[in-house]
Amino acid sequence: MMYYIVFAIWYLFSLLPFWVLYLFSDFIYLILYKMLGYRVKVVRKNLTESFPEKSEKELREIESKFYHRLCDYFVELLKSMTMSDKEIRKRMVFKGTEIIEQCVADEQSIALYLGHTFNWEWVTSLPFRISDKMHCGQLYHALENPIIDKILLRQRQRWGAECIALVDILRKTIEYKKKNQLTIIGYIGDQVPHWNNIHHWCWFLNHDTPVMTGTERIAIKNHQAILYLELTQKKRGHYEAEFKLITRKPEQLKEFEATDIYYQMLEANIRRQPELWLWSHNRWKRTREEFNRRFKVVDGKVIQILED
Q1: Mind listing the pLDDT tens digit for each residue in 141-155?
Q2: Please, which residues have CB within 8 angstroms of residue 186's CB and are 6 or more apart in sequence?
Q3: Known InterPro entries for this protein (predicted)?
Q4: DSSP three-state, residue 221
């Protein structure tokens, strides 16, 4: 019963025109940022450490813009439930799709790197823009709230892109390969890896950063091309997503080289429009010093030597 109540409320809000939703977003901004200071300490710390060259005035300007974009993200997520195909085509423009067309011609699947740059939710409209020979999907992390999780799962698949759970991703990519089904699967790779999944560190936004390397390993195993999707905002509620090639032959790169290139491209993307990245995420909560104190690596496996 609660699912249907939440769904109905979400649906009704999504029917509101964008101009009304953005007024609502401005109101949320005042509550979330100005009154409650939602995660301001985390945001401020991340920005200060990532951009030591910027003045306090510049950092506060980025901070304020970020909270505006975050609130816009919430209402755009609501709107996604009932947006028409015509509307999403107008508001999410894809460039560089000729790279995908070449992969289709060469019968090569694609591993697509993304970051938490707004509005990554609308990337699920990609099936409208590329050949139907290429099956679209995205890695999906289930939410703790089962009601919101169910709604978002439905919503993220409404334009034809499949949500694939993390635990199923390797099995699914192998299955698609055996069926000769071309795929382009999106991986939001800028998340914090679990301690026992840390195999590589890179320098990212002025931080020694532990990174996830599973995307690279899956691409190599399945001989997939690796692309990066650069997201930029052209104006409020209008985004541009450009595909950029990392490699067509990941097996020829050095270990973790594709991952390093991804983080370099992501950082360049962030520096162009820093307010679009998810600064409220505690991205650097794991340090190399703590890792070295608690773990050791034996034959490529992370072994815990100290309890939490």
Answers
A1: 888 899 999 999 999
A2: 112, 113, 114, 123, 136, 137, 138, 139, 161, 229
A3: LipA_acyltrans
A4: helix
